């Protein structure tokens, strides 16, 4: 299945460890950058995150090959599962500057729709669900 959405990540010297690799602590930040870009494109509207927010319930990263400061890193992102109150996002970290564009890492985040005033999970706003399903046709068979 294809990943339609891709974000170029600006790697910084401060993101590296003593060996010159991108430190594992920064992968979640890169996932957040990709996620916010995805929401901006797919939802295509201003979202009041305090009113109809989301929380990160679970995050996983599987490292395959090191990423270095000189790499042209892109994070591909898509929603792979959707339910009434949550959705699973998957990520692919691609080194675009190398032959065959190797996969450097994969990841996933479980996002839960959340009302911060009431401190409880909420049903995903209808418009979000519709727009995600429209953008991600592979989900139609799963819902």
Annotate the secondary structure layout.
Elements: E1 5-8, H1 27-43, E2 53-63, E3 73-82, E4 86-95, E5 103-115, E6 120-121, H2 126-135
Antiparallel strand pairs: 1-3, 2-5, 3-4, 4-5, 5-6
What does this structure look like?
It is a single chain. The protein is 19% helix and 35% strand. It contains 2 helices and 6 strands, in the order βαβββββα.
Keywords:
143 residues, alpha+beta, Thiol Ester Dehydrase, Chain A, 2 helices, 6 strands
CATH class: Alpha Beta
Mean pLDDT: 92
- Taking all Cα atoms into account, the compactness measure Rg is 16 Å
Anisotropy-based shape: globular
Distance between the ends? 17 Å
The low-confidence runs, each spanning 5 or more residues with pLDDT under 50, are: none
The helix/strand series, from N terminus to C terminus, equals EHEEEEEH
Task: Please name the CATH topology.
Answer: Thiol Ester Dehydrase, Chain A
CATH superfamily: Hotdog Thioesterase
Strand content: 25-35%
């Amino acid at each position: 299945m294809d990943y339609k959405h891709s974000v170029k990540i600006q790697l910084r010297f401060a993101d590296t460890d003593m060996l010159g690799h991108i430190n594992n602590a920064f992968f979640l930040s890169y996932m957040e950058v990709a996620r916010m870009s995805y929401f901006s494109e797919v939802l295509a509207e201003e979202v009041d995150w305090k009113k109809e927010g989301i929380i990160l319930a679970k995050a996983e990263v599987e490292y395959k090959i090191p990423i270095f400061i000189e790499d042209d890193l892109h994070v591909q992102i898509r929603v792979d599962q959707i339910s009434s109150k949550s959705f699973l996002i998957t990520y692919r970290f691609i080194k675009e500057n190398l032959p065959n564009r190797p996969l450097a890492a994969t990841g996933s985040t479980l996002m839960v729709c959340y009302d911060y005033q009431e401190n409880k999970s909420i049903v995903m706003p209808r418009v979000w669900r519709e727009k995600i399903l429209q953008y991600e046709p592979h989900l139609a068979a799963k819902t």
